[in-house]
């Protein structure tokens, strides 16, 4: 009941606030702010309708006064909803398509093919001895006084030639072979150690299985002997039960006879006194 009263109070306050908001002169303006305000008002109207429905459901036995008040609240909500929808139709922004980007993209230029040399010409690169520089003459102090026709007296010895590529590749190949061989030896040693450890584990596992097998066999023998003993005792118990049945009946009858005689003697003693 308190929950229903709380919803009813919230409903009345909410409808009053909506009625006051509809009197705001800013509804006549246009713009995104008015559109967002309209959407919020519509959501508030939906929430108010939900509160009104809860109040009506919680009022199990409504009187005519409450029914009339509920109808008035519903009519007020309908009027506010109609007003908000009219404003929404008026201020809803028209969706605009973005400008296409294709007209602004420049047309790609065709790639230029590289110039080709005539088919009859070939390019030669220096090879072998062509890479060795020729001796360069250097002038001396004496040659400065000679005429241009006299040859110079000293020359620079040619530069040493570069090492051939075959020697460098051979040295690199030897170092790679040594590294590979060392790695191979190390891996072989590790594999040998792993094989030895695996063999030890296998031997230990087989010894454990043998010991467990002996224990299992001993337990099986004990279980079989206990089973045979229980079978014998079962036969003996059955025979004893058959023999003791008659004895039990005799004992019960003797007890009954003694009890009857005792009662008879007590009654006889009392009667004879």
TrEMBL record:
Membrane topology value: Single-pass type IV membrane protein
Primary location class: endoplasmic reticulum
Alphabetic keyword roster: Endoplasmic reticulum, ER-Golgi transport, Membrane, Protein transport, Transmembrane, Transmembrane helix, Transport
Keyword match Oxidoreductase: no
Ranges annotated as spanning the membrane: 250-269
Composition bias type Pro residues, residue spans: 100-111
Any single GO CC term annotated in Swiss-Prot or TrEMBL for this entry: endoplasmic reticulum membrane
Disordered, as annotated region: 91-142
GO molecular-function terms, A-Z: SNAP receptor activity
Localisation: Endoplasmic reticulum membrane
This protein's record includes keyword Signal: no
Pfam family, one: Use1
InterPro entries the record matches: Vesicle_transport_protein_Use1
GO biological process: protein transport; retrograde vesicle-mediated transport, Golgi to endoplasmic reticulum
Family: Belongs to the USE1 family.
Name of the protein this chain belongs to: Vesicle transport protein USE1
Organism: Armillaria luteobubalina
């Amino acid at each position: 009941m308190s929950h229903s009263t709380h919803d009813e109070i919230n409903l009345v306050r909410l409808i009053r606030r909506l009625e006051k908001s509809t009197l705001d002169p800013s509804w006549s303006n246009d713009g995104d702010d008015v559109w967002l305000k309209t959407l919020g008002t519509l959501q508030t109207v939906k929430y108010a309708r939900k509160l009104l429905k809860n109040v009506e459901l919680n009022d199990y036995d409504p009187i005519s006064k409450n029914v009339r008040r509920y109808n008035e609240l519903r009519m007020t909500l309908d009027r506010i909803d109609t007003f908000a929808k009219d404003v929404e139709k008026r201020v809803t922004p028209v969706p605009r398509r973005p400008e296409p980007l294709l007209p602004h993209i420049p047309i790609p230029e065709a790639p230029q093919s590289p110039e080709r040399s005539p088919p009859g010409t070939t390019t030669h690169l220096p090879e072998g001895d062509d890479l060795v520089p020729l001796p360069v003459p250097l002038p001396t102090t004496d040659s400065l006084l000679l005429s241009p026709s006299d040859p110079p007296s000293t020359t620079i010895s040619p530069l040493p030639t570069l090492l051939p590529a075959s020697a460098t590749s051979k040295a690199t190949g030897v170092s790679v072979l040594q590294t590979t061989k060392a790695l191979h030896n190390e891996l072989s040693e590790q594999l040998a150690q792993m094989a030895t450890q695996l063999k030890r584990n296998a031997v230990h596992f087989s010894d454990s299985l043998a010991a467990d097998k002996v224990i299992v066999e001993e337990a099986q023998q004990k279980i079989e002997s206990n089973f045979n003993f229980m079978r014998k005792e079962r036969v003996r118990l059955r025979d004893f039960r058959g023999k003791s049945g008659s004895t039990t009946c005799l004992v019960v009858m003797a007890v009954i006879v003694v009890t009857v005689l005792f009662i008879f003697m007590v009654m006889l003693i009392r009667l004879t006194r």
